[in-house]
């Protein structure tokens, strides 16, 4: 997607989304949240990670991915030469579902205008979804086991505008199921490879700069490793 906004305008709109979410009562999650978690990162990020929903730690901190999943996300970012401040991290719903249950379809739908505003402000080149629930918001018919680790193409109906959708497993899934971690690492390397190719094509985005010091080839899958 060619960026048609300025960093200042993007930052203002992202701040406006955060303010609006903090007082939003459009779904029942407003009744149980400590605070909304709108997301954070660089307003000029060309790579946006979209998770599912805030958890207990995020609900208390008001920031996305601050627990064990966040540490793994930071490690995965470092493995491909990126820092959290260079990307933008957000969730499909901005308030924590009770008991960390999955967000209901009605809650995701109620929160969709915030997600749309954020993506319109950021105008990312790549949207990396984390987990099957985030993927379902953009590609309802896609199965993560079949499409993870490579750009996902759909012809119409997507919410991602001109951005490339790049499905990944959720870091929490890799923490619960150790065999998914090498898969996630390999998929991140594939994401780096995609970013490098994008940079070579002259995108010129700072966050998509080519990085030579990290692996860009997926390593072979080991026996018994999850797909
Ligand atoms: S989850 Fe989204 S729609 Fe629901 S109350 Fe929070 S900000 Fe509003």
Could you provide a short overview of the structure?
Helices cover 40% and strands 9% of the residues. By secondary structure, it is an alpha/beta fold.
Could you list some keywords that capture this structure?
227 residues; alpha/beta; Uracil-DNA Glycosylase, subunit E; 5-stranded mixed beta sheet; 8 helices; 5 strands; globular; binds iron/sulfur cluster
What's the topology here?
Blueprint: H1 7-22, E1 40-41, E2 47-51, H2 56-61, H3 68-79, E3 88-91, H4 105-122, E4 126-130, H5 132-138, H6 144-147, E5 164-168, H7 171-176, H8 180-200
Parallel strand pairs: 2-3, 2-4, 4-5
Antiparallel strand pairs: 1-3
The structure holds iron/sulfur cluster (SF4).
Can you count the helices? 8
Whole-number mean pLDDT:
87
User: In what order do the strands lie side by side in the largest sheet?
Assistant: 1-3-2-4-5
Say which molecules are bound, naming each kind only once.
Answer: iron/sulfur cluster
- Please name the fourth-level CATH homologous superfamily: Uracil-DNA glycosylase-like domain
Name of the level-1 CATH class: Alpha Beta
Question: From the 3D coordinates, which CATH architecture would you assign?
Answer: 3-Layer(aba) Sandwich
Strand segment count = 5
By CATH, the topology is: Uracil-DNA Glycosylase, subunit E
Euclidean distance between termini CA atoms? 30 Å
Number of domains: 1
The chain-level structural class is alpha/beta
- Largest beta-sheet characterization: 5 strands, mixed
The SSE order reads HEEHHEHEHHEHH
Bulk shape:
globular
Rg on CA atoms, Å: 17 Å
């Amino acid at each position: 997607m060619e960026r048609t906004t300025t960093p200042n305008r993007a930052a203002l709109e992202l701040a406006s989304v955060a303010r609006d979410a903090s007082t939003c009562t459009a779904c029942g999650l407003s009744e149980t949240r400590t605070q909304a978690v709108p997301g954070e990162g660089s307003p000029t990020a060309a790579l946006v990670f979209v998770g599912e929903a805030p958890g207990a730690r995020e609900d208390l901190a008001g920031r996305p991915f601050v627990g064990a999943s966040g540490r793994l996300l930071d490690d995965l970012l470092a493995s491909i030469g990126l820092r959290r401040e260079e990307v933008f991290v957000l969730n499909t719903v901005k308030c924590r579902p009770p008991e960390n249950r999955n967000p209901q379809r009605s809650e995701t739908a109620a929160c969709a205008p915030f997600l749309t505003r954020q993506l319109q402000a950021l105008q990312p080149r790549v949207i990396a979804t984390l987990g099957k629930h985030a993927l379902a918001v953009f590609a309802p018919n896609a199965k993560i086991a079949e499409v993870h680790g490579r750009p996902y193409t759909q012809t119409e109906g997507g919410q991602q505008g001109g951005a490339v959708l790049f499905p990944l497993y959720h870091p929490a899934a890799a923490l619960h199921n150790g065999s998914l971690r090498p898969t996630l690492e390999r998929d991140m390397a594939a994401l780096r490879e995609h970013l490098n190719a994008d940079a070579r094509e002259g995108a010129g985005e700072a966050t998509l700069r080519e990085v030579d010091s990290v692996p860009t080839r997926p390593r072979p899958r080991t026996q018994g490793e999850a797909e």
